[in-house]
Amino acid sequence: MIKAGILGSTGYAGAELVRLLLGHKDVEIVWYGSKSYVDQAFAGIYGNFFRIAENICKGEDMDALAEEADVIFTATPQGYCASLMNESVLSKVKVIDLSADFRLKDVSVYEQWYKIMHPTPQYIGEAVYGLCELFREDIRGCRLLANPGCYTTCSILATYPLVKAGLIDPSTIIIDAKSGTSGAGRGAKVGNLFCEVNENIKAYGVASHRHTPEIEEQLTKAAGAPVVINFTPHLVPMQRGILVTAYASLCPGVTAEDVANAYHAQYEGEFFIRLLGEGKCPETRWVEGSNFTDIGWVIDPRTNRVIMMSALDNLVKGAAGQAVQNMNIMFGLDEAEGLRALPMFP
Amino acid sequence: MIKAGILGSTGYAGAELVRLLLGHKDVEIVWYGSKSYVDQAFAGIYGNFFRIAENICKGEDMDALAEEADVIFTATPQGYCASLMNESVLSKVKVIDLSADFRLKDVSVYEQWYKIMHPTPQYIGEAVYGLCELFREDIRGCRLLANPGCYTTCSILATYPLVKAGLIDPSTIIIDAKSGTSGAGRGAKVGNLFCEVNENIKAYGVASHRHTPEIEEQLTKAAGAPVVINFTPHLVPMQRGILVTAYASLCPGVTAEDVANAYHAQYEGEFFIRLLGEGKCPETRWVEGSNFTDIGWVIDPRTNRVIMMSALDNLVKGAAGQAVQNMNIMFGLDEAEGLRALPMFP
Amino acid sequence: MIKAGILGSTGYAGAELVRLLLGHKDVEIVWYGSKSYVDQAFAGIYGNFFRIAENICKGEDMDALAEEADVIFTATPQGYCASLMNESVLSKVKVIDLSADFRLKDVSVYEQWYKIMHPTPQYIGEAVYGLCELFREDIRGCRLLANPGCYTTCSILATYPLVKAGLIDPSTIIIDAKSGTSGAGRGAKVGNLFCEVNENIKAYGVASHRHTPEIEEQLTKAAGAPVVINFTPHLVPMQRGILVTAYASLCPGVTAEDVANAYHAQYEGEFFIRLLGEGKCPETRWVEGSNFTDIGWVIDPRTNRVIMMSALDNLVKGAAGQAVQNMNIMFGLDEAEGLRALPMFP
Amino acid sequence: MIKAGILGSTGYAGAELVRLLLGHKDVEIVWYGSKSYVDQAFAGIYGNFFRIAENICKGEDMDALAEEADVIFTATPQGYCASLMNESVLSKVKVIDLSADFRLKDVSVYEQWYKIMHPTPQYIGEAVYGLCELFREDIRGCRLLANPGCYTTCSILATYPLVKAGLIDPSTIIIDAKSGTSGAGRGAKVGNLFCEVNENIKAYGVASHRHTPEIEEQLTKAAGAPVVINFTPHLVPMQRGILVTAYASLCPGVTAEDVANAYHAQYEGEFFIRLLGEGKCPETRWVEGSNFTDIGWVIDPRTNRVIMMSALDNLVKGAAGQAVQNMNIMFGLDEAEGLRALPMFP
Fold first, then answer.
1. pTM higher than 0.95 for the full model?
2. Helix, strand or coil for residue A201?
3. Contact B231, B113 (CB under 8 A)
4. Is D17 helix (H, G, I), strand (E, B) or coil?
5. Could you tell me the domains of chain C?
6. How far is B81 from chain A (nearest CA, A)?
7. Do A178 and A243 touch, CB atoms closer than 8 A?
8. Cis omega (within 30 of 0) for bond into B237
């Protein structure tokens, strides 16, 4: 059994990790870490785990935890995981960080977008960006994994194949994303109250959201040249789910067949990527609760643009599910272990 | 492998059966029956099963199906399962009926509340009422199982122990129930449109809902004397979940300890019943997607009443999950097989 | 023009008062009071008032306000209005208190249920309980008005006529109430976050909710003898609306006609009470945004009980709307002035 | 009093017209037209109008209606209004058509996008496109008014000023729109059931939605040259509200001040357009129930694009409210008459 510890287990992403790991046959959770709920029973904080996870939450002591665990998941605020990182920890356990601390290779970009100083930039280099379907080989051997953001995963999976194949002009990429509210976390803020979110839709962080440079870095890799995009997130009155609607101009001469081929070539054999095909629109309800990402696209001959669409569950493929998928890869397990639950509808 | 066929697989309860059975290691679905979608791919009707259940829906031919399957689930309108019942079918397969056709022992009560004639009353006698935690022994050997209604399961599980133990006056029982909208089915009706259900709550079927006699029949068994109740269902703007708030006067001298003891005695060792205890209020979100029923209660010394509360997922423990639990019992499997998924929150 | 000041204008009930008073042809708001948002523009806190109410919020200084205003509305936490009450204020302005401070005539009941000491019990006696349709005459001349609670208004309007007419046994009254989430206020609490409230229903405050003694006091008046009830509130995933489902045993010999007559006799000519009639179920959507209360009832001959149902908008008839209605009565205006907006659907 | 008749009064837009016109001091509704509910009481179809509009629905006889009314609103399916249009009708009454029949000047574009033949193209020429803030002068004298679509109104109001002022490159315009579900109408379709819409977001009609040519026609006018755009609508789990997020590349040398100036120049003095300013994101909740359109924008120096955002209530400014505003202009009334209700929140 792999012994897993979770720092930040009492946030939404952390609790989703608990749910997934409790259903994973090769894993035992040995540490429910929390900042706000130390010494309280986990099941008292999340009633769904009543009689299932009555464990008492511990503080977030990564050094102590490194002695007990084989893998540590950090679902903690930006800067926290990095502040605890050291050679001693990394020599003992594998770390899967769900925060943004090790996602961006250029520390100055991190510091500019997150407005905090990175405390341990020396580990950025070795950290592997854990978008499983794209970087599986690098993930296998790593000891420090940067789990991608929710918007990012959805955005990159939709656009990467066409950028990589040179079918679209990267300078024309516009990503309009819509997210359920669990992405905003469990903090007690007026803006996230039921009456404020329900019966409303709004954009936020326009031209300034922190997932922008993360998307750009990966698309830059795909394009082989710097990519700058527009990324606009929106808050939708639902709990889970991210939908990305991305636009780009097709390069001269690109056909519908080229586009389809690029998607199929990229994702052939991928269990968690479901290509709906051209003319099909993914919907968040069809992936809810699962680790799937659904992708569809439309080509508009009137404007010569392709509209790339993708949907995933922000707490699963957008956070905890992908973290487990990464763990499976890192530990040489079946990649889908613990992640085979089908989407739940309605 | 147990070969299972589903008649009515394209309703919400039927599709939930598909979801659960696809995750059941001992079952193979051999027949996706449908009235409205014959010859269409199941995954085209429920996009969550894209690439998972691309099977083509067949008609609802129970005789043909009886040749192929070991167990048939009928998630069909009232009267339909009964109309297809015959000795030949029952001699070949086990039938688990999710409709109301074989729930009521008194055919005249059935015909009065459902306003239809029962076509095969001769099978009512042998049918077993499948409330697993109460009638497990009878379920084991049966070949025709009447799967309880959603409101009914929730109502009976909350009130049965106190009636059975003689702690409450059955003539004072009032059950106020609240249900999510999936209980209304997938039929295209104006009253179930998003804009009609959202931002609204209403009672319906007041003093006339068909689940009333079903609850009364079981409580009558528990009381050993005829029980007549008030049952009031309400429609809540959410997808899944039933909450029951039931009221009754305590018999003279009954203490809080007596009440707690009765619950614990009834449900000791039951995996799917979670007793939250006195003073605790169950919430539908804590059981969503799971087969659990959560039960809590409050004693009001000012009025000498006990308020009994229970919550379940109407599509799981209230329909498909309990059907699978019944199948597990009938086939001698671990009762929780295929039903261990934890509740999903948020 | 009547000059109105609002203490607590930045809560949901306060903001609803602003909305209604801005549409009232005889009123001018001279004071937007707030505890948390002093010196901020009201429209910055509630974007719906952008360019409409750009007024700057002031502190909650009742003495200063009493010099400027003709009427003061207090939509403030329990105990606050009472703590500011004095003869000087009452000699200058009329006070309409939306909190519970002056609703209960027995100060010990107040202190027991609200767990705070009443600072100015000497004004309880003169305060008038402002349930307009029942106590209009007393309201006319008063200077200190206790505006009823939301659950209370809905509960009393449904049950009062039958208690008063002696048609039901008051000792059998059970009130099962369901409320939208705006009733919980705009405070930043985890329990009121979108993801916690949505897709959930729960009871809370069972046998202990503070609106219980308020209902009991009024029904005791109606019955002419002490009435003790069960009152159970529930939280529903919607923004506005309260639905009450109340149960009671009919007295011997009472007919359906008696029940209908009692309702009609009580509410004849009342603009804001809409009697749907026997067998009809009110729905919160049909009153949303309006000051109406819809009432329907069902008689169950099987149990000899009557189920009394009522629906209102908790922020309008349950709070701000009734406060304006009371103001209209106190100032001799048309009672419906500023309250004629029709319910908005969908 | 202006006598108004409504054909299609029992759809959502029609019922909203009823709500607004009943609150309009100069209008009397003389005809509640309906196809599906002839001879039924309007209040039986929309319970919010209980005791308010007990009028009996009549058939949709435009000729008879033309004798009785001064203005006819048609909130009917595409092709219907056009099929009833004739000189006799137009000589007697003013017609405000909420369908698309007279919005597009080029009949072949209409027939191509709507897949129906236009029965009375001879009236297209004289019809005036009723986007009040842009074409007020033309509206004044007209007898046949084409009321704009909901998506269209929101899209044009956000983008028109910058196109007109030549600040953005029209060939780069991409409009990503999100709508509440009332826009889908009250038809009984599986896709609009609560359980299908709730907890979901999807795009639909990608690169093929019928509002596209309507937007293009108006922007072409503004640009003085043909404009072709991408328009992508999305369905959001809420009742009312449209949010538009539109993208375009700024022309060389355009400054933030230029953009702000263009908006202010276009909408100066417009009561129903609220410019939130640069860096501000409109939200549908702040306009719900009102005739306002809120507009904000962000300039992204990294990509040299401007993100233009607008929010309105699809049933008010997007349908019935703008129809009433048009009526006010056509009859020489105060343009805001009957439309002064403030947005309702929460």
1. yes
2. coil
3. no
4. helix
5. 2-126 (3.40.50.720), 151-313 (3.30.360.10)
6. 25
7. yes
8. no
Alpha helices, DSSP H, located in B127-255: 132-140, 150-164, 194-197, 211-223
Tokens 């770390």 map to which residue?
A: A95
What is the C-alpha to C-alpha distance for residues B17 and B26, in angstroms, rounded to an integer? 14
What secondary structure does DSSP assign to A255-310, as a single string?
-HHHHHHHHHHHHTT-TTEEEEEET---BGGGTTTSS-EEEEEEEETTTTEEEEEE
Tokens linked to B181: 């909208």
Q: Which residues fall within 8 angstroms of residue D312, CB to CB, at 6 or more apart?
A: D150, D153, D154, D157, D241, D242, D284, D287, D292, D293, D294, D318
Beta strand spans in chain A (E): 2-7, 27-32, 71-74, 94-97, 128-129, 144-146, 174-179, 202-203, 230-235, 242-249, 273-278, 293-300, 305-312
- Asked whether the beta carbons of residue A200 and residue D230 sit closer than 8 angstroms, the reply is no
Contact A188 C186 (CB under 8 A): no
Tokens describing residue C50:
């952008």
Any A CB within 8 A of D256 CB: no
**Six-digit token string for A132:** 């499983």
Q: Are A64 and A41 in contact (CB under 8 A)?
A: no
Which tokens in the block code for residue D66?
């033309």
Q: Rounded to 5 degrees, what are φ and ψ at A249? A: -85, 135
- CB-CB contact of A169 with A251 (8 Å): yes
Map A169-200 to HEC letters: CHHHCEEEEEECHHHHCCCCCHHHEHHHHCCC
Taken in order A123, A125, A129, A135, the sign of the CA dihedral is negative
Q: Which of residues 113-172 of C touch D (CB under 8 A)?
A: none
Separation between Cα atoms, residue C271 and residue C292, nearest integer Å: 8
Helices (H) and strands (E) in chain D, counts: 12, 13
Residues on chain A touching D307 (C-beta within 8 angstroms): 203, 206-207, 230, 232
User: Known catalytic residue: B154?
Assistant: no
Phi and psi at residue C250, in whole multiples of 5°? -70, 145
- What is the Cα Rg of chain A in Å? 20
**Which of B243-257, C54-68, C275-289 is predicted least confidently?**
C54-68
Token pair for residue D265?
Answer: 């120049």
CA distance A176 to A309: 10
- Would you tell me how many other CB atoms lie within 10 Å of the CB of residue D14? 26
Nearest to B50 by CA among D135, D76, A290: A290
pLDDT tens by residue, D71-95: 999 999 999 999 999 999 999 999 9
**Per-residue pLDDT reduced to its tens digit, B97-132:** 999 999 999 999 999 999 999 999 999 999 999 999
Rounded-to-integer distance, Cα D288 and Cα C345, Å: 11
D336 in contact with C, Cβ within 8 Å: no
Residues forming a β-bridge with C33: C58
- Kindly give the confidence (pLDDT) of every residue in chain A, 346 residues in length, as a single tens digit, with 9 standing for 90 and above: 999 999 999 999 999 999 999 999 999 999 999 999 999 999 999 999 999 999 999 998 899 999 999 999 999 999 999 999 999 999 999 999 999 999 999 999 999 999 999 999 999 999 999 999 999 999 999 999 999 999 999 999 999 999 999 999 999 999 999 999 999 999 999 999 999 999 999 999 999 999 999 999 999 999 999 999 999 999 999 999 999 999 999 999 999 999 999 999 999 999 999 999 999 999 999 999 999 999 999 999 999 999 999 999 999 999 999 999 999 999 999 999 999 999 999 9
* A192·C193 Cβ contact <8 A: yes
Return the C-alpha torsion angle B326, B327, B332, B337, nearest 10.
-90
d(CA C18, CA C10): 9
Give which of C232, C171, C172 is closest to C207, Cα–Cα: C232
Strand partners for B250? B168
